[in-house]
Write a structure and sequence with these properties.
The chain is α/β, with parallel strands linked by helices. About 60% of the residues lie in helices and about 10% in strands. It has 14 helices and five strands. The chain has a five-stranded parallel β-sheet with strand order 2-1-3-4-5, with helices on both faces. The longest helix has 19 residues, at about 100-115.
Length: about 300
């Protein structure tokens, strides 16, 4: 359901019963808390029965309460401020077993990513990257770490890799102004979504470049312009963005491209090994103390 949930509730409010209006008012005022309540708990909180909550979800057009809850999760990923995320995280995780809970949530996100990512889109993305004349990679804010990681490895495989910086709109457009139909733009964006990345996608799509989106939802701002949509879950409501599943998906993309270009990669890494050895780029196992003394 792509229409904003809060607008949907407000628009249908005249048709609600007295109990349903209480549910609507609570969700409009406390959607960050409602997203993590069962139908029974939400009903108890506002003073209605669980069946009233289920009927409320159906009136909104959802196939039961789980559909409404998914829409609430979708809503809060993009609407919550950093302060609200801290409050919700405290309520959900508490202070005990944080390591176990956070890693468990990340494992679940990788599992859901594996289930939800289109194999067809993944294969088409690999084909487009392998055939591209130039590869542009963009990721703003916390997603910039993923963009740099992807650009580093693709830079070892391809000569025409450009990491797009997003310090300002003018700087960004200057870097992608020559993008064309023989090029690929890979954009990475997760809630709260970057407006810069969405603008770059619209520009690249208008220039008929192949556009690949790595994001969390089909309603993401960069999904509408994407020719290939690679979905990765980043659901943890926290001031810290969980990028484990997106990074795993990007690893798979690098490996798949590498397998298609393995002959070129072998030659490249042979040359790199010579350079690394000549200029002592890496510490040699067993000789660390010896080299340190010489330095």
């Amino acid at each position: 359901m792509q229409k904003d949930l809060l607008s949907l509730i407000a628009g249908k409010s005249p048709a609600f019963s007295k109990g349903q209006k209480r549910i609507a008012e609570y969700i409009l005022d406390h959607y960050d808390k409602a997203a993590f309540m069962t139908a029974s708990k939400l009903g108890a909180t506002v003073g209605v029965s669980e069946s009233t909550v289920v009927r409320f979800a159906s009136i909104l057009g959802f196939d039961g309460y789980p559909g409404l809850q998914r829409a609430l999760h979708e809503l809060i990923r993009n609407k919550l401020t950093a302060v609200q995320r801290i409050e919700v995280t405290t309520e959900q995780l508490g202070s005990d077993d944080v390591l176990d809970k956070v890693l468990g949530l990340d494992i679940e996100k990788i599992r859901r990513t594996l289930e939800e990512t289109s194999r067809e889109d993944f294969d088409r993305a690999v084909d487009a990257i392998v055939k591209a004349q130039n590869i542009y990679i963009i990721g703003a804010r916390s997603a910039s770490a993923l963009a740099r990681f992807l650009a580093y490895y693709f830079g070892l495989i391809f000569p025409g890799v450009k990491l797009v910086h997003t310090t300002s709109s003018s700087e960004m457009f200057e870097q992608i102004m020559r993008i064309g139909e023989n090029d690929v733009l890979i954009g990475i964006s997760f809630p709260r979504y970057s407006r810069m990345t969405a603008k770059a996608f619209d520009f690249a799509s208008a220039r008929k470049a192949q556009v690949i989106a790595v994001t969390d939802s089909e309603v993401s701002p960069i999904a509408r312009a994407a020719g290939c949509l690679l979905l990765a879950r980043s659901d943890m409501v926290s001031f810290v963005d969980s990028l484990v599943a997106p990074l795993s998906l990007i690893n798979a993309l690098i490996v798949a491209v590498g397998l298609r270009k393995r002959q070129e990669i072998s030659a490249t890494f042979e040359r790199l090994e010579e350079i690394w050895d000549k200029y002592n780029v890496y510490e040699k196992s067993g000789n660390a103390g010896e080299e340190t003394a010489e330095t």
